[in-house]
Amino acid sequence: MITNWEESFNLFQKVVSSSSKAVQIRALIKVAHLSNSAPADVLARAVPILTQILGSSSSPSVQEASAYCLKRIAHQGNGDRMATLIGQHGAIPIILRLLQHSEDSFQWVLVKCLWSLVTFGKHNRVIVVRNGGLEMVISMLGLCTGSMRRYLLEILSALTLLRGVRRVIMSLEGLQFLVEAVKFGGMASRERAAHAVGCLGVVKAVRRKLVDLGAMQMLIELLREGDASTKLVAGNALGVVSSHIACIRPLAQAGVIPLYVELLKGHDPIGKEIAEDVFCVLAVAEVNAVAIAEHLVLILKGNDEEAKDAAADILWDLSSYNHSVPFIRNSGAIPILVQLLRNGSSEVRDKVSGAIAQLSYSAGNRAALVEAGAVPVLIDMLVDELEGLRENAAEALISFSEDASLRNRISEAFTVTSFQEMQNRLVEIQNSDVHMARSLRQMSIEHLTWDPDMI
Q1: Per-state percent for the chain, helix, strand, coil, to nearest 5
Q2: Are 435 and 395 in contact (CB under 8 A)?
Q3: N or C: which end of the chain has fewer CB within 10 A?
Q4: CB 105, CB 71: distance < 8 Å
């Protein structure tokens, strides 16, 4: 065990500057092995020496040992200090230059060293890109078929954290490798790749290309296998990439609905938002709406208030889809919604009241709501202290009042102020719609096309 690090460092300097190549290699490897226990200041002083050896030695074996030593040091220290220091001393351009002509074990060590520098040093990613490293990695991926490929994929995923890289990766024919990086590599790297895919998928033309390259399947697999944070990234990226009518059925058929249910039931608010957005897209297809409604009912029956709040919010959205209305009713949701309207938390009651207001536009749902005992609860809510609840209750009861067979059941609501205000508001909206329709009928196509005030 070394007790005098200063003396050992001075000996190292002497050996690497004047000894034979074999002795230099042994000294470099020893430093690499000692990097786990060496003080940070000693490692920091060794970095410029190692970088100089890497760039100036005439022996590939000595250069390989130096790169190996830098790789080991890049892992050390708190945060990215050592990796950043190595980048600041100019090691990255040297590594990229040597990579162009290296092979076998030397190439392996250089790739691993570059991997360490971009994995542990975020500022090094910019240096790599500025020195042509992105193009080199993509070129090597086009030729490499061995186990080195995983390291190259992880380097690529690290570089795509830079917005500038994401902007040019498609023109460099690197998109296929980014999709591949979602499937292969460590979980942190796969998460980075999924994040990049999600960012790129916002553009419609790129989204189609990603789907063609199999990004949906890769992201589904990651959503299924990933840890908590990775599932969020994969779920969000998958929602972006699959947001096209042609993808909705295949996505559900691949079994993603239960995966998003898990996000909905999780404790991360972002996961709930992601699941809500995806379910609203998937429910455009009737078969998906049925499955989603069944899962939401199970959540509403549970004890997790946050999950119930999110589930009620989704049902509120789905109740505006005409084809979803009978599925929601047949799923048994209405009695549960009425029960939550009575006894749920204020947050859940707000969402539930919105869903009931929307559902009440359907005659079949009105009958089911009456049977579940919703009317007296809604009438009581007309004087609730929360404005949102009052308005939703009034909207639902107005739908009942327009149904001749149910009008007498809600007669006591007619004298309540919130009910009257909602009636007046709906009349104003209807009059406004009529006025707009008349104005449009009086306009010619020429008005709509040429009047600059209409643009």
Answers
A1: 80, 0, 20
A2: no
A3: N
A4: no
Reference 99, options 117, 83, 85, 81; nearest CA is 117
From 152, 206, 198, 202, select the one nearest 177 (Cα to Cα): 152
Residue 347 CB partners (closer than 8 Å, separation 6+): 305, 309
- Contact yes or no for 239/278 (Cβ under 8 A): yes
* Token pair of 400 as six digits: 């009942």
Among 140, 168, 145, CA closest to 155: 140
Residue found by looking up tokens 């351009």 in the block: 93
Contact in structure between 197 and 216 (CB atoms under 8 Å): no
Q: Is there a contact between 207 and 243 (Cβ–Cβ < 8 Å)?
A: yes
Tokens of 125: 């990613």
Contact 147, 113 (CB under 8 A): no
What is d(CA 439, CA 433) in angstroms, rounded to the nearest whole number?
Answer: 10
Q: CA torsion angle for 60, 64, 67, 73 (degrees, to 10)?
A: -150
Alpha-carbon torsion 395, 401, 402, 403, what sign?
Answer: positive
pLDDT tens string for the chain (455 positions)?
Answer: 677 888 888 988 888 887 788 999 999 999 899 888 888 899 999 999 999 999 998 899 999 999 999 999 998 877 788 999 999 999 999 999 999 989 899 999 999 999 999 999 999 999 999 999 999 999 999 988 888 999 999 999 999 999 999 989 988 889 999 999 999 999 999 999 999 999 999 988 898 899 999 999 999 999 999 999 999 999 999 999 988 777 888 888 888 999 999 999 988 999 999 999 998 888 888 888 888 889 999 999 988 888 888 998 998 888 887 777 787 888 888 999 999 998 888 888 899 999 999 998 888 888 898 899 988 888 888 887 788 888 888 888 888 888 878 777 777 777 777 777 777 776 666 555 444 444 444 444 444 444 444 33
> Which backbone phi and psi does 365 adopt, to 5 degrees?
-70, -35
Buried b (16+ CB within 10 A) or exposed e, 424-449: eeeeeeeeeeeeeeeeeeeeeeeeee
Confirm if 309 and 348 have CB atoms less than 8 A apart: yes
CB 80 within 8 A of CB 117: no
Q: Shortest CA distance to 139 belongs to which of 179, 174, 106?
A: 174
Residue 310 tokens, joined: 């999110």
